[in-house]
Write a structure and sequence with these properties.
PIG-T; PIGT transamidase; 3-stranded antiparallel β-sheet; globular; 12 strands
C-alpha cells in the first residue's frame, strides 16, 4: 500500500525528522518452514497415549523481515506546557483507510491512570477494545483501535486519535520510568574523549534484561578495547 493506506500514511518525512528522536531498524531472521514430526507411544498401564514430537532438524527455511520505526515527540515543551496530542498534531495527517493486504493493523494508546481514583486523561474517539498487560512489573492499560474493524470508519472517513488531560497536571508529577537512561559525551579529542551511558532501574527488587543500542556520532572514533562496564561501583568485564 506504500503511503496510500494503512499506518504508513502517517510517515511524513518532514514531521518525523523534526521530532525529538527517531530511529529506524530492520530485523531479518531465519524461520523454520518445514520440520520433521514423528509419533511417540507411551503407556501408563491402562492408557496408550500418542504424542507428536518435533525433530530438531529443519528441512526448509523462510526469512522473516521486520521493520520498526520509533519516534518521540515532545509536545510539552513545544505546546506551551500542554500535554494534549493527536495524530494530526504529530504527523499532520490522519488515518483514512486500512491497507487491504494487512492481516493486522492496530493503534495502541497507553491510558494507564497514575492515580486509580482520579483518571486524569481521556481518549477519543472511543476505542474498539481495551487491552491490559504487565510491562516491567507494572499493569498497563491500552486503548486499542483496530483498523480492520468495519465500525471504525463508519462514523467518520478519517481516524484522528486524540488524548486530552481533564485538568492541568504539573510536570513534576510525572512518574519516573522503571527503566530510563542518560548519555553524554565527555573529554576532548581522541585521547580523552569518551561516551558515557547511564542506565537506571528504579524497581525496588526486580531485575530486567536490557538490550542497549548505541548510535555513535560520525565524528567520534570508538576503541572497543577501552570499553568498561560498571555496576553498583564494581567493574564487569564485557564478553
Amino acid at each position: 500500500c506504500s503511503l496510500q493506506a494503512g499506518l504508513a500514511v502517517l510517515l511524513k518525512a518532514e514531521r518525523l525528522f523534526h521530532s525529538s528522536y527517531h530511529s529506524q531498524a530492520v530485523h531479518i531472521r531465519p524461520i523454520c518452514r518445514v520440520s520433521i514430526w514423528f509419533a511417540q507411544l507411551s503407556c501408563d498401564g491402562f492408557t496408550v497415549c500418542l504424542s507428536l514430537v518435533q525433530d530438531a532438524s529443519c528441512l526448509a527455511l523462510s526469512w522473516e523481515l521486520r521493520q520498526t520505526l520509533t519516534v518521540v515527540f515532545d509536545f510539552f515543551s513545544s505546546g506551551q506546557g500542554k500535554k494534549d496530542w493527536s495524530l494530526f498534531k504529530m504527523f499532520s495527517r490522519t488515518l483514512t483507510d486500512t491497507c487491504p493486504l494487512a492481516s493486522q493493523s492496530k493503534v495502541y494508546v497507553d491510558i494507564s491512570p497514575k492515580n486509580k481514583e482520579k483518571e486524569l486523561l481521556e481518549v477519543s474517539p472511543p476505542p474498539t477494545s481495551v487491552h491490559e498487560a504487565i510491562v516491567q512489573g507494572d499493569r498497563r492499560t491500552y486503548a486499542v483501535y483496530d483498523l480492520l474493524s468495519p465500525s471504525l470508519f463508519n462514523t467518520s472517513r478519517s481516524l484522528n486519535v486524540q488524548l486530552k488531560w481533564k485538568r492541568p497536571q504539573d510536570s513534576s508529577e510525572m512518574p519516573i520510568p522503571t527503566l530510563h537512561a542518560q548519555r553524554y559525551v565527555g573529554g576532548y579529542g581522541l585521547q580523552t574523549g569518551e561516551i558515557c551511558t547511564l542506565i537506571y532501574n528504579t524497581h525496588p527488587y526486580r531485575a530486567f534484561p536490557v538490550i542497549l543500542l548505541e548510535t555513535v556520532p560520525w565524528y567520534l572514533r570508538l576503541y572497543v578495547h577501552t570499553l568498561t562496564i560498571i555496576t553498583k561501583g564494581k567493574e564487569n568485564k564485557p564478553s
